[in-house]
Amino acid sequence: MVIPLYNHAATVSGVARELSRLYADVLVVDDGSADGGAATLTGLPLTVTRHEKNRGKGAAILTAATWARAHGFTHMVTIDADGQHFPADIAALLAEGCALPNSIIIGARDFNTPNVPASSRFGRNFSAFWARVQTGVTVSDIQSGLRLYPLTVFECLRLTARRYAFEVEIIIKALWHGFTISEVPVRVFYPKRGERVSHFHKWRDNFWVSLLNTRLTLRALLPIPHKKFLPAADGQLVTLNPLKVIIAQLQRRENPLLLGLSAAWGVFWGTLALPGARQMFLLWGVGWFNLNRLVAFSAEKLALPPLAPALCIEVGYWLRHGKWLTELSWRTLGHEFFHRFWEWILGSLLVAPALALTVGALVWLLGKILRKGALYGATLVK
Length: 382
Prior knowledge:
Distance between the termini: 50 Å
Largest sheet: 4 strands, mixed
Helix content: 40-55%
Number of domains: 2
CATH class of the largest domain: Alpha Beta
Order of helices and strands: EHEEHEHEHEHHEHHHHHHHH
Number of strands: 7
Strand content: 5-15%
CATH superfamily of the largest domain: Spore Coat Polysaccharide Biosynthesis Protein SpsA, Chain A
């Protein structure tokens, strides 16, 4: 049991006393507090370790993970020092962790309680949205500090954040690398406005969380699979050739309809003439609808210039003039650039859905054939 502590002298002793009454092996990581909070823990059956300077909540959790590994533990529970959580609710996390030993278990806070700050509601929904976009998984309370971690997570992941952004980063990267997330409902207590002590810096910490989300989103855009650390996870092809990626995913015989929809989504946004915005819509849909990320982003690469834009311009030119553009000269491509740009946008409104349906149907059909062949072969072997 771990309590990261930073300037919560008024509440930490109550949390620690209740926690040590319920569980043995309680560790408090004092992250450079200046209010003497650690001194209020004298006489309690627990261990205190200290950072001489404030390094951030993430750094405190990493220190705790190192201590837990050194003492032979396989999992650890973190609980905030501000009295927000109820130590008695940890039993529900432990029960879930026994059933799912390779999962991070999050205590999802019940916000149907008095005094919940509007900023907490917004932050929770904001983080949940981006987690869905970046991973395709719904995590309702990615900011909760009541968690059960398998220590293998800390051994496998490369984590860069050290303050509040740490708790977002570790969830996203854990999902990318094959770990799972489970949430159990827990109670939460918020003091009245003006009585609550929070060390979340509105501008500084929001800046670092935004910067982290930007980095994670950009990484999510790459059609390169993440290494899976769990022994049972299957490896995936690592290549920048979009056709090879799609073929490899087809050979894995995943759901043909999902693969077809993923390919259609990628081609649609890759073809549609919305420079600067289409990749954001592509990424949002992949995460929100839980599509196959590798197939969608690889299919989008198939629509890169010059073929798809040229086809859109031809169709747009035909719609405007009733004939095809056959003259390629400085006049048609230079002086009349803005005409061609408008025709690209106009033509893409027809070409994008047509190509998406064609490619999506082809990928779906190939997936059906491969899956049918696998099932037939398995029947013969049996």
